[in-house]
Design a protein that fits this description.
With about 550 residues, this protein is of the alpha/beta class. Helix 1 packs parallel to helix 14. The N terminus is likely disordered. It binds 3-acetylpyridine adenine dinucleotide (N01). The site of 3-acetylpyridine adenine dinucleotide has 27 residues, from helix 5. 3-acetylpyridine adenine dinucleotide binds next to helix 5.
């Protein structure tokens, strides 16, 4: 690091080859690649006081990963794979934090991370060909390359419900959970939201709360996780088969360590299909979705899974009215991110848990003592838990005031929705790389697989630029336009857009442009496209010497 050029009257900027925003899975690996593989000076700027990114903030009760532990990790280091051992089928938040801290220390990354440093602005200086970044505390940093590793689900969505400021109890968003935890004992708790997070939180909160009222706007499918400690033989299998597991994850559309069955739901008789679904239900987890190849492209095929899952809900939940509300699901299975759970539906059989349908009677306001719905019903509460999700994919990037070439702001550039080339770069923003940005497979994929691919692509790209004397790389506007068309076409070839209230479309945040944000063409196909682009001399990018 050097103390570099300054605009008169401002703090001198600390200069680096590369600045990385965020110390989650992506930022940590990006630092390792740029510093230890390319020998660049690189600095990570992280708002939190520790590593972990999304996992640092999401400490809500029941927080656990929906990817299986042996696939929810880095694969770049054989030694790391050999020495780390997960304890459960799905890792809990504290175990993921232990893993990421282990990685940080093992690769001596901490010394190049500045914690408690929230980036507020980033500006590209055309003449100097550098990015200057400012933080909340007024510090300035500059670098040739700016890499955002800010996560896809890190900007919390707290709905603007009138009266929240007058609520006399406690309230929390699951994505900004207090580090010391929350004591629910003896309290009347209201939870808004039944997405993946809410479905994980309900059974755990219900264990100690005096009463838990769940406010459900959209009923949701969920598959049992069947979480359990990993058996010694499975641990041995993982240790002995790392290359094969990695190859499998790289060969599939969603980066998970299981293949999608190459058969149609229509190939089987109803009885055979039922047996397949029963076996998948007994096995549990996201793999249910892989039972047939056409579940996400053929509505009639999807209906067979949806019918099975709705029936399961009605079998588990004893009160017929509650069961009816929970199984009244208005979108095809897996067109919203499918949650997996540990006794979610069974929790509604507890006497201290009740369900309120806020699709039928929306929340009207929050009062000093609770929640009132439009039908006039009021619910007295001591604690409100917002499991209301995130301003996904674009939110974390737009929360930073980013200005590219010719003074254009990212906010204006994306006013009608995000436009990227490959989810990696934005036209008009040279030398800015967005790890798992909008237009990448990211959230439709097992995240570490998507992250490793992006970080390695960016690292190879920067190595190429430096080796060939290229000072600037920028996505061409034409390539970005074509990629946006490709992202739309990929989504439209699936049933995903049928869930018209999903966060994939930005529909969960009022006023957000409705654009299908992740690339739904599959991770394996996407990897091939990115490799081709690089092999063709970074086709679609403008490289300037
Ligand atoms: O958020 P969500 P999430 N009034 O947006 C409801 C990942 N994840 O935090 O569906 C009433 O899915 C909203 O209702 P509706 C995963 O990718 C991963 O649960 O918009 N309700 C919905 O029920 C996941 O998809 C893991 O009608 C309101 C809920 O709040 C993503 O994070 C674990 C409302 C929000 O659901 C986000 O999941 C957990 C309002 N005003 C999450 N506003 C792991 O793998 C919103 N809702 C570890």
């Amino acid at each position: 690091m050097t103390l570099g050029s300054t605009v008169s009257g401002t703090t001198p900027a600390a200069d680096f080859d590369a600045l990385i925003i965020g110390a989650g899975f992506s930022g940590l690996y990006q630092l390792y690649c740029l510093r230890d593989r390319l020998g660049l000076s690189a600095q990570v700027l992280e708002a939190g006081d520790g590593v972990g990114g999304t996992w640092y903030w999401n400490r809500y009760p029941g927080a656990r990963c929906d990817s299986e532990s042996h696939s929810y990790c880095y694969t770049f280091s054989k030694e790391l794979l050999e020495e780390w051992e997960w304890s459960e089928r799905y890792p809990e938040q504290p175990e993921i934090m232990r893993y990421l801290n282990h990685v940080t220390d093992r690769f001596d990354l901490r010394r190049d991370i500045r914690f408690g440093t929230r980036v507020t602005t980033a500006r590209f200086d055309d003449a100097a060909n550098r990015w200057t970044v400012e933080t909340e505390a007024g510090e300035r940093y500059s670098a040739t390359y700016l890499i955002t590793a800010v996560g896809c689900l890190s900007s919390t969505n707290i709905p603007k419900i009138p009266g929240l400021e007058d609520f006399k109890g406690e309230w929390y968003h699951t994505g900004l959970w207090p580090h010391g935890g929350v004591d629910f004992a003896g309290k009347r708790v209201g939870q808004i939201g039944t997405g993946s997070t809410g479905i994980q939180a309900v059974p755990v909160i219900a264990e100690t709360a005096k009463h838990l009222t769940v406010f459900q706007r959209t009923a949701n499918y969920s598959i049992p996780a069947h979480n359990a400690p990993l058996k010694p033989e499975f641990k041995r299998y993982v240790k002995e088969n790392h290359p094969a597991i990695r190859e499998l994850m790289h060969s599939t559309a969603n980066g998970h360590p299981f293949a999608i069955e190459d058969r149609s739901a229509h190939d089987l008789t109803p009885e055979q299909r039922e047996a397949v679904y029963e076996a998948a239900w007994a096995k549990g987890g996201l793999q249910f979705r892989a039972s047939f190849r056409d579940l996400l492209v053929d509505k009639a095929a999807n209906d067979t899974a949806a019918d099975f899952l709705k029936r399961k809900i009605r079998e588990i939940v004893k009160d017929p009215q509650t069961a009816a509300k929970l199984s009244d699901i208005d979108h095809p299975f897996a067109t919203k991110r499918p949650p997996i759970d540990s006794n979610y539906f069974g929790t509604y059989n507890r006497p201290n848990v009740s369900l309120v349908d806020v699709r039928a009677a929306p929340i009207e306001r929050i009062t000093p003592t609770g929640i009132v719905t439009r039908d006039g019903a009021s619910y007295d509460l001591d604690v409100i838990v917002f499991a209301t999700g995130f301003d996904a994919m674009t939110g974390p990037l737009l929360s930073i005031d980013i200005t590219g070439r010719d003074g254009q702001s990212l906010k204006d550039t994306w006013s009608a929705g995000p436009r990227t080339y490959l989810g990696l770069q934005v036209a008009g923003f040279p030398n800015l790389f967005t790890v798992t940005g909008p237009g990448s497979p990211s959230v439709l994929c097992n995240m570490p697989v998507a992250i490793e691919q992006h970080v390695e692509w960016i690292t190879d790209c920067i190595a190429h630029l430096r080796a060939s004397g290229v000072k600037r790389i920028e996505a061409s506007a034409d390539a970005a336009d074509q990629w946006v068309d490709e992202v739309n076409a990929a989504a439209n070839a699936t049933l995903l857009p049928l869930a018209n209230h999903s966060w994939y479309l930005g529909a969960n945040v009022p006023g957000k442009p409705r654009v299908f944000m992740p690339y739904a063409g599959g991770m394996a196909r996407y990897r091939g496209i990115c490799n081709d682009v690089a092999a063709k001399g970074y086709e679609g990018f403008v490289l300037s010497r």
